[in-house]
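Example 3.2
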Amino acid sequence: MEQFHLNINQFLNTDIDLLEVNNWEKLQKIKNGFVNYNNNYYMIADGILKQATLIDNSAEFHVVVQTLYEYSVVLVAEHDEIKGYLSLNEMLPQLVHHYQTLLSYFTIITKTSEASVTVINDKREVILWTEGAERIFSLPHEKIQGDDITNHFEKDKLAVTEALYRGQALQQSHHLPRDDVFVLINTSPVYVNGKIVGAVASETDITSQVKLNRELMQASERIHRLEQNLQTLQPSDDPFREIKGQSAPLEHTKRMIEKLRHTEVSVLILGESGVGKELFAKAIHETRETKESPFVAINCGAIPNALFESELFGYERGAFSGADQKGKNGKFELARNGTLFLDEIAEMPLDMQVKLLRVLQDKKYFAVGGSKEIQANFRVIAATNRDLDQFVEEGLFREDLYYRLNVVNLTIPPLRERKEDIVQLVHHFLYELSVRYHKPIPELSPQFMNALLKHNWKGNVRELRNALERLVVFSNDGEAFIEDLPFLAKQVPMNNNESNVQPSTLQASMDKHERQLLTEALKHSGSNKQRCAADLGISRATLYNKLQKHNLE
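Structure, written as tokens:
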């Protein structure tokens, strides 16, 4: 935008000769030109003497204009060297042209922009109402242009007047200028010489996105209820059936969860991204709740700030624009007599942290737009991969809420600290993914498995599963190619001896590993075949076939 700014140099006339004159007689003989007479500057045109003054070219443009009120001509210097002069007669046509240029750009910009742009002056009169504003508010500019904006909108719903009166700017803020319109708004006051002379609002219509988001939330809730119904048709008494592995850190975590069986304390689950914190939350839920108790999960990092309160508290019919006419139960109500799992709790806005804390303390709340007090009856499990102690110290997370949630905390060990679980996880995922993609289960060589064991797995179980999914997708008749995982390929030694390994030797190694895995799984399940099959992620029929193959019946 620099080309639109006024500066001295763009109006400077450099056609100048400066004469040094030291007596009045010589000055009278000069017909045209600039003269320095006893350190006073003059312009002589056709014998007419006009006094001039000297300013530096770094001066602000408004200072130059004020100076030209007093002097007909202004000489401009740079580092004490005179570069040219300015005069009102020569500047005026250029200023008019500059104004016309700015007006043309401004007109085209406002017509080209699809966003709603509103400009008001210090009397609240609308001086600009773009076509985007006409579309969003169904209000033609002929009806509002030049009129007080408060004649067309409720005063308490106008963010642009807040910018005008208080100098309060907004950035990417959700706003309801009307009951049927939801926008993302930016506002800013307009200053001239330090004084507010107007305000600007730019709005993007997100009504359809908000409605789609609510429909998606409702669909997610229906899917979740269907998943819960499906689980009731496939009952299991083992709350850890989805958690694969038998490493010491994992067994320690399971024992801690078992101790929560007859409690209602809040639990904070800590762990890196991808360790499966939700699986452990479900295990806690199933350990201490009945089969009919709901488990309601909400990702605090995936909800827009403007929707947070209605998602948690629910709302009554007509509570706000776009609200379901029947109202909606919030997560608090859906989790009644069950568990509310708050994933990514560190991403919850501070104002919502206050409201959540009040619900946890008082055990009651009001729905948005409601007047009836509702009793809160749910257990809370929160999870995060952030350092909440650091967040509290930096003022990003409320200390009182932290202590309320952190009655019991569980730290889920990362995969690199329980690498002995990788083998079982690999077999589980390969079976699950092969069934999904209708492909034979790929066989992995000892070198391949060794590379899997050596890898650091910064993304933890999620990264491992994603890698195995890629293997299954690109596998060919049960053969997996390590080249499909470039980050692992460099860990596998490629030498001449490897190419001479006989298939029977590889098969023997795999059979030996499979027999060991079956033996450990049987021991862990107490020889319970149903639980053993569930731990391995295979059917009971497949388990019996493998037990028979290895003479383990």
